[in-house]
Structures are given as structure tokens and as C-alpha cells.
Write a structure and sequence with these properties.
The chain has 3 helices and 7 strands. The structure holds adenosine-5'-triphosphate. Belongs to the TsaE family.
């Protein structure tokens, strides 16, 4: 979408480039733009559905694009639920169904996966956002 925030466009680019098995860890405060970035990912993966944060389920799955997208939001989960999910995801789930996994509030994960891309989003005083690709390469982008 042409009038979407730059955060969306960053996600869209990533979605067009990523291959199955990629894990995107998203960090940042309320309203920083994590869901917006995942919506862009969905567009880059050519998923026609609207992407919203999972509220009543642990994972929203989309299988209608080029590659499956798994969208998680850890905000409302208890630490024990996060830990259980963490174990299932990294040692069971992803191996079976390779797709793109995007995790909001990833700072809550007790274990990091072996291979991932970590992006932090921050509010700026002028209303824009600062995106920092924290891993694998430190890089800051004003969005
Ligand atoms: N680069 C940007 N510049 C200005 N506004 C932006 C930018 N990126 C996202 N936004 C806007 O910020 C608002 C909040 O975004 P979003 O819901 O994606 O945040 P979030 O991090 O997922 O929040 P939460 O943690 O509450 O789920 C949206 O209205 C979105 O359009």
C-alpha cells in the first residue's frame, strides 16, 4: 500500500527476500510498529488475508501466500506459556513445517533460536520510528 508507514515497507521487502525457516524476532514498546512490520511481511509473501496480531490464539497461521507465515505475539502470555511455546517452536514445530515465523515481544523468549533476524522498533519524538536490525548485523533505519 502506497500510504502505509515505512515500517510496512521494510516488512514487505523482507517478506519478498526471506526463505522458509526464517525467524524474525521483533522487539519494541506498545505501538512501536511490530504488527505493521508483520503486515508488510504478509504483503511480501503475497498473503491476501488481513494480518492482525493473534489475541485469542497462540499463533495465527497463513498458508495462502508463497511461503507459510506463523505470527506470534507473546505480550499476553504467562512466562510458563512462553517457555513451553519456545520449546515447541524451536525444537519441534519449525522443523516440521518450514515457513516464516514472526514473533512480537520476542524479548520475552527465554531461549534464542540458532538462526534468526532480530529487529527492534522505537518511537521517535517526531512520530517516526527507528528500526534497528540488532542481529545478524547492527544497522539503524529511520522509518
Ligand atoms: N514508521 C512509522 N511511522 C509512523 N507511524 C507508524 C510507523 N510504523 C507504524 N506506525 C503506526 O503505529 C501504530 C501502531 O503500530 P502497530 O500496531 O504495528 O504497533 P505494535 O508494536 O504492534 O503495537 P502493540 O505492541 O500494541 O501490538 C499504527 O497506527 C501504525 O500505522
Amino acid at each position: 500500500m502506497a500510504d502505509s508507514p515505512a515500517t510496512y515497507h521494510l516488512g514487505q521487502r523482507l517478506g519478498a527476500l526471506l526463505s522458509p525457516g526464517s525467524i524474525i524476532l521483533l522487539e519494541g514498546d506498545l505501538g512501536a510498529g511490530k504488527t505493521t512490520l508483520v503486515q508488510g511481511l504478509g504483503a511480501g509473501l503475497e498473503i491476501p488475508e488481513n494480518i492482525e496480531s493473534p489475541t485469542f490464539t497462540l499463533i495465527n497461521e497463513y498458508h495462502s501466500g508463497r511461503i507459510p507465515l506463523y505470527h506470534l505475539d507473546l505480550y499476553r502470555l504467562e512466562p510458563s506459556e512462553v517457555e513451553q511455546l519456545n520449546i515447541e517452536l524451536y525444537w519441534e514445530g519449525i522443523e516440521v513445517t518450514p515457513g516464516i515465523t514472526a514473533i512480537e515481544w520476542a524479548e520475552r523468549l527465554p531461549y534464542q533460536p540458532d538462526d534468526f533476524i532480530k529487529i527492534g522498533l522505537k518511537h521517535q519524538d517526531d512520530g517516526s520510528r527507528l528500526a534497528e536490525i540488532i542481529y545478524p548485523e547492527s544497522l539503524q533505519l529511520k522509518l
